[in-house]
Amino acid sequence: MAALSGKVVQNVFIAQFYQQNRQFGTQYQRDSCVPYMRALPPFHGGKLAWTRNSSMQMRNLLKYQNGFVNRRTFYCDAASSATAIPSLDKVDFLKLQNGSDIRGVAVSGVEGEPVSLTEPVTEAIAAGFAAWLLDKKKVDASQKLRVSVGHDSRISAQKLQDAVSRGIASAGLDVVQYGLASTPAMFNSTLTEDEAILCPADGAIMITASHLPYNRNGFKFFTNDGGLGKNDIKDVLERAASIYSNFLAKGYSVKASESVKKVDYMAVYTSDLVKAVRKAAGNIEKPLEGFHIVVDAGNGAGGFFAAKVLEPLGAITSGSQFLEPDGMFPNHIPNPEDKAAMKAITQAVLDNKANLGIIFDTDVDRSAAVDSTGRELNRNRLIALMSAIVLEEHPGTTIVTDSVTSDGLTSFIEKKLGGKHHRFKRGYKNVIDEAIRLNSTGEESHLAIETSGHGALKENHWLDDGAYLMVKLLNKLASARASGKGVGSKVLTDLVEGLEEPAIAVELRLKINQNHPDLKGRSFREYGEAVLQHLGNSIASNSKLQKAPVNYEGVRVSGFGGWFLLRLSLHDPVLPLNIEAPSHEDAVKLGLEVAAAVKEFQALDTSALDKFVQP
């Protein structure tokens, strides 16, 4: 082991250890949500110091299956060395952009997925955000900005939080670490005004990759104006690339952050959620007393909702599951769109005879529910439910959704609820920005919501907050009981009565082979647009089909009692095809129309569609 002196033993060891030992017990530190593993070298100056005894400790590591690791990067002989300098590779920073987020690989060990979010890259991105923020705020030399930093339950969270903190501090800004937090809480920290908890923050960074696998991670950025947009993220990454080039030219070293403070902001955030429900029920202290509500956090950051929100309101939360943060996500993907995840919360509701089930994604900006009968309230049903609640409060308002919502939802919103359905593009930021734009033109909109479970309300600063979305449901339960108008989740289920739902709803992904000669030098995006143009032209001459008169994304067509939408993915070389129909036979007919129109595009992999339409 002496040969390892001064080198870094990378994350792969811990990731592989964890994968091989998923059954060992868990013990968590509340504020950092990172593993603590016994029998490891001690900390010195924030690094693990390697001693002569550490070789034996490492060999014995796999014997210890009752805890986790506190840091996943081990520094050998760190006690006698001020810093350990990792090797630096050239990085294409713009490839890390994922719309209005940054995403990358943070943990090695998965074949074909090299680490792209190294500590130097992360530090450069954080410094880039700091430079962007300084320009945006235009502060003078006497003012010192501060940035709040939080993370979800991923196993790379602590390492990246440290790197982010160094990057922010290197630009002369103060850093306030929240530890385990939700994405909505990070935005809220830029709005809260309370100097005792160092608020408001001038900017906020959430370290998360939503529902992606354990080896991924990423960043979301906020100011009091909301989340950064695509152009802002591009600007941050361009600044980061310049900062990183200095690392390459002058060398990179890990320096301790001196201006870092820690705050339990989640206590403030959850207290506000509790107050919102009490207010809706007429300031009753325990408006949910007697309600049995189970929560499934999927081992993400949403476990707080049971003990910190529901229980203070009087709810019974026994049977709640996967509340403890675990960045390997051993039970199911924390994703309200995932079938296994929805099956898990549905079973928990039925097994515990609960009134309601609530499920969150990893960073709590998405959510869904299940009623007492096991009926899922996600996707179109959740949009219908939220539309019903919002339109009671704001009659006639416009509901903005993404492009894959059903025709039945349009009919429900417009004919039954008396609202207006504005179907826009995929992407939660697209939907939110469109709602904001409509309001600026004089068209009132109070809800922007995606089928994915991202939902934002005007009353909540257009923040897509999964916990706040569920609070709106709890408000309805509490106020209905307080006014004697009903008890239990039937209050919610009754609100979506009359929503027409298709017998068949599928999404097929048609991939573009970027190496195929049929691209003829075009980008996958140009090729995909050519496919859509050709499909649109072929539909125009087909009397059995009708193109949607108003459409903002792809080609949407009605026919055979149903509809299909073929669009280009926001980020990937894929054309997703959504089909909804009253029967499998009708869905196949729609699929055959698409297959006939795109067959000449040889770089398009239609195998999923071909399989679907086979007799």
Structure summarized in a few sentences:
The chain is an alpha+beta fold. It contains 17 helices and 27 strands.
Helix % is: 25-40%
Quantity of strands, as a count: 27
Q: Which ranges are low-confidence, i.e. pLDDT below 50, for 5 or more consecutive residues?
A: 1-83
First-last Cα distance: 62 Å
Structural class: alpha+beta
Mean pLDDT: 87
- Tally of helical segments: 17
Largest sheet: 8 strands, mixed
Shape: globular
Strand content: 15-25%
Radius of gyration: 25 Å
Characterise the protein shown here.
This protein has 615 residues and is α+β, with helices and mostly antiparallel strands. It is 34% helix and 18% strand. It has 17 helices and 27 strands. Strands 5, 6, 7, 8, 9, 10, 11 and 12 form an 8-stranded mixed β-sheet that branches. It has a 6-stranded antiparallel β-sheet with strand order 23-24-25-26-22-27. Strands 18-17-19-20-21 form a 5-stranded mixed β-sheet, sandwiched between helices. A hairpin with a 2-residue loop joins strand 24 (555-559) and strand 25 (562-566). Helix 7 runs parallel beside helix 13 (466-482). The protein is globular and about 70 Å long. Its cofactor is Mg(2+).
